[in-house]
């Protein structure tokens, strides 16, 4: 069953406003406006919408500009702060530079003052030195004491090639290298042991007093000779039969030495020939020094050398052989005593210390210096007197 509602019932529920009320007029106005053309309603709606959008867009632009201005203002404040800090740093640097300049002027004044003091000390030292020299001239030579011990005297213009310091005291000069020197401290380190070193106690020590630390050459030795290691100074004949067995030294006679010299001590001698002398490389190792090939010179155990007969070599005898480089005169000694070799001269060839053994079991020991039974200094003094 459908329930119907009559108009009268409706009006009773929702009574209409009176014609004089605002609601009634508003309703009528709205109704009249609605009764107008539909086109006018659409135009008004579009106009209102566009005005609203325009106002919103303008507000957005204003906010964006304000944000940009705020960022610019912040960046400017940051830059200003940084510049203020930099200005403070510059001021601090200026103050530091001013302090340094003041200190520099003070130091310069101190240096000038010290320079004047040094000049005064030098003048006083020079005056004192002149007085000392005059006093020394008035003294006798035997009354003049040495100013410094030998181990404190410097070698002029000589520098150690290892520590690069001036050589003071003992100087060691290499006989192989053209210009190599060591001080005593560096020589003890054993950094240059492969080459013989020349020992100079002072700058005035003549070269003739210093001999190279030579030894017998293992590679220039007869295969039936035995060399005692590691010094290679003791030599023994180990062949089963008699025969000449020869050995040469490692280094040639140095031209730098005023007098070259070495000695040989006869440890075991069974009666065979034994030759001690100098020889060139042309001498074969199965030949005897002094008797074969050119440029060989020897003093024999039978007491002969170059046709001169002298007393021979027995057990325990020390035989020396040397060469005066200035006169090319050969030198022979026996137990430290010089033998007469006034007419014995050698040719200017490259020579080596050389020894020949002939009897199995013979043993000798070489001494290449610097301490010998023979007084080399005395030999040099004699040579100087003969000039």
From TrEMBL:
Q: Which UniProt keywords apply?
A: Coiled coil, Metal-binding, Zinc, Zinc-finger
Chain residue ranges for the region called Disordered: 1-21, 47-70, 122-150
PANTHER family recorded for this chain? Answer: SEQUESTOSOME 1-RELATED, SEQUESTOSOME-1
Bias class Polar residues marks the residues at: 1-10, 126-135
Q: Which residues form a coiled coil?
A: 80-110
ZZ-type domain spans which residues?
155-205
Q: Tell me which domain of life the UniProt entry assigns to the organism this sequence originates from.
A: Eukaryota
Membrane-crossing residue ranges in chain numbering: none
Q: What are the Basic and acidic residues biased-composition ranges?
A: 136-150
Name its species: Globodera pallida
A Pfam cross-reference name: SPRY
Q: What is this protein called?
A: ZZ-type domain-containing protein
InterPro entries attached to this UniProt entry: Autophagy_Rcpt_SigReg, B30.2/SPRY_sf, ConA-like_dom_sf, Gid1/RanBPM/SPLA_SPRY, SPRY_dom, Znf_ZZ, Znf_ZZ_sf
Entry keyword annotation includes Zinc: yes
Leader sequence residues: none
Q: Which molecular-function annotation in GO is an example for this chain?
A: K63-linked polyubiquitin modification-dependent protein binding
Report whether DNA repair shows up as a keyword of the record. no
One biological-process term from Gene Ontology?
endosome organization
Q: Which GO terms describe its cellular component?
A: aggresome; amphisome
